[in-house]
What does this fold into?
Amino acid sequence: MRLEFHHWTPHHNMIVFSSLYFCEENDINFDVQINPQISWNGAILYFSNKTFYFDYSDDIQFIDDPQKYDFYLKRSLKIADVNQNVFPLNLQVNYSYKSLKLLSKLNLKFLTNKINRIEIIRALDYFNTFTNLSHNAIDVRRLLNKAKDNDGKVIFYTRLWNPDNHIDLEEKERRRLQNEFRIESCRIIRKNFKNASVGLFPDLLSSKLAPDLLLDKNKTSLKEYFGLLRQCNIGIADDGLKDTPGWKIGEYLLYGQAVVTTPINVAVENFNEHINYEKVSSRSAYLEIPEKIEYLLKDKKYLKIAQNNLDWSNEYLHPKNYLKRILSITRNNY
It folds into this structure.
């Protein structure tokens, strides 16, 4: 099995560590190579005489031509774009699995290439003591197997994006609506639920627009955040910059959270309303959030949905099944 990408980034960790898991389980040689012709958010997997393109862009536009490959797997895939050789990559999350063992399998040329330096250092930092934690990976070996009851605690840690930093008028409006949703959601949750942890990453924009919601910067690293997720039951999410799901929902699922989100407008397999999540009616419908949370709190429905999400993440996100599932669904189309 050979995996190629432009250079190693957190966007590739799902396929990198899942390929390691698959090759270990099936006693297959695993080779990773740099290919500068591939888009930064793409990767090509060569296996069983087939080519698999992985499109990890958060944009609904394709970053390569699906007809060039046997199979094209895309995150942020419109339902209408699913066809004979195009399949959804579902949700994305940044995780690791036996990172030191992975490094031992990489060739010297790959390890000494400066373009991979950041992710190699992160992989070496087994205890997360000295690296930049802005893209800290979840160690899947430390995840829960069963949903834990934390009395329905709600969490929504988020950040704002400055509309003035983009020249496109449509994107400016998207960011304005996004910021409004995030600010007002935090405020309405804080007002209505004592058992909640909400707030904004502290920067100049959030300090100006919502100084009442600033988080303690010392507690905003992903290492601290993942620890907090273990103490919560209901996670609030909204679309990212391209009106597609960011990494937050996947993180919620791996940590056994019920989810309240804005509408999900991309293809996500077997991920259903009332079974895996509750949704508000639109990007601006933050006033509906308390009702959705109350629904989950009643008779502790959040526990059932949290377990559903742990089971879903185990099947669709966890490295023991991520690549195996992709190969199984595409094999039916060989």
Summary: The longest helix spans residues 169-192.
